[in-house]
Design a protein that fits this description.
- By secondary structure, the protein is α+β, with helices and mostly antiparallel strands.
- About 20% of the residues lie in helices and about 30% in strands.
- The strands form three sheets. The chain has a six-stranded antiparallel barrel.
- Strand 16 and strand 17 (about 275-285) form a beta hairpin.
- Helix 4 (about 235-245) packs across helix 7 (about 330-355).
- The longest helix is centred in the last third of the chain and has 26 residues, at about 330-355.
- It is globular.
Length: about 375
């Protein structure tokens, strides 16, 4: 099973938008498309995607079908990644072992195993597979795979938010969605959507109004979504990030949240409207369990010396932070503070690892963890 999971590690994609903190999709090499849930990308022309196989980038939403809750994304370039099959020739049986792969809670790739408990849970004119592989927020859009590595279905967390019951759209409906899209557009690049009323696929060039040209029902294509435009304090924050050379589109991680990378340091910005507090947290390295006393002493000394920058420890993670209240938000001074944080985060990361025995974030702190 490990070699199967390693293959999926290369093609499972993390998705984020300005409206939600994250979800999952998976890349189908034969079509050069990312498959995910429609509800994850709704009201977005583009979404942020990244995986272990390619850098963070904007992907175009080229197709969605709200009925099946399926959307297709097109990356900016083609990738020769591992191919994974959709299981459409035969159906699995109740009792079959399955694994759900995704990015729960915005964390990087994880998988949970379980068993199919009900093969056909009818919903309108189609059905879901029911299983007990644990699903959490962020798993939506990820693949459900069988013991042989075939995609059995696509996980749909928000159908019923339960940690003990999971639902997945069968692979046959994913295949049908892709086939209907490609039959209409010919190549996987043009914009289209499927009408939830008459079920006809409508391409961009066919649509002259807000309604389906076939049946007259309201229909929105992905490219008709309004571009996200921040206002107020979020607008100022994005102006600051842009001035620091950051691509704000790639930094957005849900409502009033941004993520950027500076060297080895991972930095999260959050704005809390209810309190007016802006936090910028640089997640540095991790504390070793081998005599960390000198490291703690160093952090306390630096807290005493640094005005505006504060070290804290959460579990074994070392975090360097700045706090700003929106009523005191000045674009120039805030940019200076954030610039210092960006520079110092990478600087301190190196010191803590090289001189105080801390571990890089992608390394375990000890063999026992």
């Amino acid at each position: 099973m490990q070699h199967i999971l390693e293959r999926y590690r290369q093609i499972v994609v993390q998705i984020a938008t300005p409206y939600n903190t994250g979800g999952t999709g998976f890349f189908l090499r034969e079509h050069q498309l990312v498959v995910t849930n429609e509800h994850l990308v709704r009201d977005n022309r583009e979404v942020i995607v990244e995986s272990d196989s390619f850098p963070r980038q904007m992907a175009t939403v080229v197709y969605w079908d709200a009925h099946y809750d399926v959307a297709l994304l097109k990356l900016s370039t083609d990738y020769e990644l591992p191919s994974v099959p959709l299981r459409i020739a035969d159906e699995p049986s109740a009792g079959d072992k399955v694994a759900a792969i995704g990015h729960p809670f915005g964390l990087r790739l994880s998988n949970t195993s379980g068993t199919l408990s009900h093969v056909r849970r009818v919903q309108d004119d189609f059905y879901y597979y029911q299983h007990d592989a644990a699903l959490n927020p962020g798993n939506s859009g990820g693949p459900l795979i069988d013991e042989h590595g075939a995609v059995v279905g696509m996980n749909v967390f928000d159908l019923e938010e339960s940690n003990s019951i999971g639902f997945s759209l069968p692979a046959v409906f994913i295949h049908e969605t892709i086939a209907a899209y490609l039959a209409k557009v010919g190549i996987a690049a043009r914009i289209a959507a499927r009408c939830t009323s008459c079920r006809v696929v409508v391409e961009e060039k066919e649509k002259a109004s807000s309604y389906c040209p076939q049946c007259g029902a309201w229909l929105q294509l992905p490219h008709e979504s309004e571009s996200y435009e921040p206002v107020g304090t979020p607008y100022t924050i994005e102006q600051i990030l842009a001035a620091l050379g950051q691509d704000v589109r790639l930094a957005r991680r849900g409502v009033n949240m941004w993520e950027i990378q500076e060297g080895s340091a991972h930095i999260t910005l959050s704005y809390y409207e209810d309190t007016g507090l802006i936090t910028a947290d640089a997640h540095l390295c991790r504390i070793s369990d081998q005599d960390p006393g000198a490291l703690y002493a160093f952090l306390l000394e630096e807290n005493y010396k640094n005005e505006g920058l504060t070290f804290s420890v959460k579990g074994r993670d070392i975090i360097l932070s700045i706090l700003i209240y929106d009523r005191y938000l000045d674009e120039r001074s805030a940019a200076d503070s954030l610039r210092i944080l960006l520079l110092q985060a990478d600087h301190y990361d190196n010191i803590l690892v090289e001189q105080y025995g801390a571990h890089w974030r992608n390394e375990p702190a000890s063999q026992g963890e």
